[in-house]
């Protein structure tokens, strides 16, 4: 004879498993447009595109198979050494923070009718 608490526990596990399975059936991903499509399969009407794709000999361009890249090895080694030493170069050129300082006056007004215009 089995223990009544074991029977209750197994019944509860079975019941919770059945309830979770019933709830999960409502969670299936369904695209409403494709569910009401008037075709036998979802790929119907794509025969021409499928036939064209099948007959492509090599979809990759010839230059994509070249493993040799035209690079400057010395310049790359300088970059690698600088990266390993955790050094960086100061950027050259105009600084964007200098462009809109208050010394040069306020920025130009927004055109009328724009979202930022008063």
Description:
The protein is mainly α and 118 residues long. It has 5 helices and no strands. The chain has helices spanning 4-24, 32-35, 47-54, 73-84, 96-99. The model has no long low-confidence stretch (mean pLDDT 76).
User: Terminal Cα separation, in Å?
Assistant: 85 Å
From the alpha-carbon coordinates, what is the Rg to the nearest angstrom?
34 Å
Supply the helix-strand structural class: mainly alpha
Strand content: under 5%
Number of strands: 0
Q: Tell me roughly what share of residues is in helical segments.
A: 40-55%
Q: What average pLDDT do the residues reach?
A: 76
Contiguous uncertain segments of 5+ residues: none
Main beta sheet: strand number and arrangement?
none
Short description:
The chain is mostly helical. It has 5 helices and no strands.
Keywords:
mainly alpha; 5 helices; extended
SSE blueprint and pairings:
Blueprint: H1 4-24, H2 32-35, H3 47-54, H4 73-84, H5 96-99
């Amino acid at each position: 004879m089995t223990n009544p608490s074991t029977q209750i526990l197994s019944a509860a596990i079975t019941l919770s498993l059945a309830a979770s399975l019933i709830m999960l059936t409502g969670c299936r991903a369904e695209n409403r447009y494709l569910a009401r499509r008037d075709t036998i399969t979802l790929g119907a009407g794509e025969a021409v595109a499928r036939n064209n794709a099948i007959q492509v000999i090599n979809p990759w361009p010839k230059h994509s198979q070249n493993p040799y890249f035209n690079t400057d090895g010395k310049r790359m080694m300088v970059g690698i050494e600088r990266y390993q030493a955790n050094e960086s170069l100061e950027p050259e050129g105009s600084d964007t923070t200098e462009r809109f300082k208050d010394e040069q006056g306020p920025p130009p007004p927004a055109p009328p009718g724009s979202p930022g215009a008063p």
